[in-house]
Amino acid sequence: MNDRRDAILRVEELHTQFLTSHGPVHAVNGVSFEIRPGETLGLLGESGSGKSTIGLSMLRLLPPGRGRISGGRVLFGGEDLVTASEKRMRRLRGRDIAMIFQESLSALNPVYTIGEQIAEVIRQHERLDRRAAMKRAAEMLEMVGMPDPGRRLGEYPHELSGGMRQRVVIAAALACQPKLLIGDEPTTALDVTVQAQILDLIADIQHRTGMAVLFITHDLGVVAEIAHRAIVLYAGRVVEEADTQSLLARPRMPYTQGLLRSLPQFAKGHRLAAIPGAVPNPRSLPTGCAFHPRCQEAKADCAQTLPALTEAGDGRRVRCLHWHNIAQDMDLRVRA
Ligand SMILES: Nc1ncnc2c1ncn2[C@@H]1O[C@H](COP(=O)(O)OP(=O)(O)OP(=O)(O)O)[C@@H](O)[C@H]1O
Predict the structure, then answer these.
(1) In which compartments does the protein localize (predicted)?
(2) Which of 29, 46, 52 to mutate to test the pocket of ligand 1 (most atoms within 8 A of CB)?
(3) What span, in angstroms and rounded, lies between the C-alpha atoms of 24 and 31?
(4) pTM for the whole thing?
């Protein structure tokens, strides 16, 4: 959180609830972060930690009547999207802020050709005739590395492989040159080779256009690959934020340390071990630090006091009462 002036997006104290027959579910509990142009921020967390809800809240795409933003601001270029009109949001979505999801097949309409669908997105936001929009659609397909883009324009989604469909979805998302791309697990359904290609593609386009990217994922390996900075989410709260290299080399929060130890490529000298237990139910969060029942470092006060998100130097933020001692222990272990 260094240079506040430059951020294209600032999320401040976001709270989002779902109303269910069993009462409200507090899915997002005071989340703040920012993204600067040309930057990729990884939003990392286990299933149920609130990642998708943050993405949907930012674009005001929560299920009507069930999901609601109950507090906070989402400032995009200084404008608060929480209070913007629905008309304004329709203009922003797809033009200034684009979102891509995991399941490319459901994002595409089976009865229209690839070309018609990309051209339609372009024409929703720009005054172009059909021919010009089709020409731009072909250029977009070329940009995302689609072989033989002219021919692909006339094909239907089912004629393409999963990786090629995801390229089409990215082409459509980027057709209006958004300033911010939100990717919600956009590579999770793809095999590792195609996943690597898509990550390279997003990084390459970002390099050329300077767009900001919020990359939502449960996969630390993906964050390591694509994100400049990362936020770790637990039970709807940010528990750690750091530049990706520091986060991977010197995680401060025990939860982040646990995530790293559960992955072979990051375990480095530690025994490979899954974090015991599961993400808590957001209807009944533990008192104090929500992670304390699963934490190997927990002390008596962790069950009583909710730690604040604390500045820990170098733009890092940590939500842990004992991060300082744990950090010293970790550093000693790393030096030994
Ligand atoms: N439409 C909904 N109605 C009720 N509760 C919901 C709804 N959508 C999400 N939730 C709850 O909100 C919490 C956060 O869910 P969310 O989908 O944002 O998590 P996530 O980190 O994106 O998980 P995943 O990786 O599995 O998508 C979960 O407890 C989930 O059960």
Answers:
(1) Cell inner membrane
(2) 52
(3) 18
(4) 0.90
Complex ipTM: 0.97
Nearest-atom number in ligand 1 for the CA of 55 is 18
Ligand 1 pocket at CB < 6 A: 18, 20, 25, 27, 45, 47-53, 63, 66-67, 218, 282
DSSP string, 103-150: -HHHHS-TTS-HHHHHHHHHHHHS---HHHHHHHHHHHHHHTT-SSHH
pLDDT in tens, 246-297: 999 888 999 998 888 877 766 566 666 778 888 888 888 899 999 999 998 9
pLDDT of 49-76, one tens digit each? 999 999 999 999 999 999 999 999 999 9
Q: Give all strands of the β-sheet with 23-35 in edge-to-edge order.
A: 23-35, 9-20, 67-76, 79-80
Return the bridge partners of 231, or none: 43, 241
